Predict the structure of Alanine racemase.
Amino acid sequence: MLDIREVSAGALLTIDLDAVRANYRLLRERLGGGAACAGVVKADAYGLGASRVAPALVAEGCRHFFVAHLDEAITLRPHIPADAELFVLHGVNPGVDSDCVAHGITPVLNSLEQIDAWTSLARSLNRTLAAVVQVDTGMSRLGLSPREMAMLAGDRSRLYGVDIRFVMSHLACAERQDHPMNAEQLERFEIARELFPGVPGCFANSSGIFLGREYHFDLVRPGAALYGVVPVVGAANPMRPVVRLQARVIQVREVEGGTRVGYGASWVAPGRCRIATVSAGYADGLIRSLGNRGAAWRGGTKLPIAGVVSMDTITLDVTDLGDRPLEPGALVDLIGEHNPVDVVAEAAGTIGYEILTSLGGRYHRHYIGG
Ligand SMILES: *Cc1c(COP(=O)(O)O)cnc(C)c1O
């Protein structure tokens, strides 16, 4: 059963689909009575493989999926049941709206232009077309302004032929529970919803779920928390880790004090040290800001990154392993029990989302569970 890629690849990425499922269950248990839980699987399920992640969510009863681009939706459609609803956050672009209909994909309409294009398609097909209407409640990224929403509500003919599945909005600061924007956006969302009585609401992302039941409405849209990223800044992470990244040691060397390591000679050995060169670099998503800041682990021993991250390699100070030196071919954890995604992200000066979506294409990917 030995897969040749498992030894020929420089690094192994293990994705635990049972953990994704457990995370979905944990989020759903937090919801108030009526709310359903969607799965956000944009950017290939945050780099983890939407064609594997989505069916695992389906097995937990998930029937609503969100991606960003129409392209992603068309690729995903065969991997989820026909009765599952698939939403495209960016809406439709002119010229491809009929592809949306042909594949049974529902756009999130973000502007009056997108609404007009969708209604004119409905008219020309002489049928009703489903859509989500997004209102911007303070993020200023996508969606109709509250004023445009009011205008739309006052002129329902503008929505002729559209079955509004949800009124939707997106939180800007939900991971900070004490941020005043949360309540401001909630209030604006409630006002927008009152304009469309009876239409279900869709508001919370992962972090929004943890703001409390008044943020849940009828459908929540978690992404990151499903993949193990911490949903609340400064709190313990209730989510199960999903990703383990192990890279292989290529070579180990002893260096004298004063020896320089890596491009730019930015790391200098403080004394006699052992340096291991490991087979993953920034081309694999170990973003360059991890240089001289991040660490790998071997068992319970922390192995700091010595020097900058190269394209295909990093160098580790493995001196602390003492009389348990690494052999070429040994694996070290770049993401794992001791260095979960959020810890790696913090060392790199970014967020877990960017670490996950940066994970490269050269890894041997191994799925467990599901
Ligand atoms: C990405 C995204 C989500 C998922 O957000 P998470 O923070 O990953 O849970 C939900 N809604 C919208 C509009 C998004 O762009």
Summary: The pocket of pyridoxal-5'-phosphate is lined by residues 40, 42, 89, 170, 205-207, 221-225 (CB under 6 Å). The chain has two domains: 31-227, 243-368. The chain has a mean pLDDT of 96.
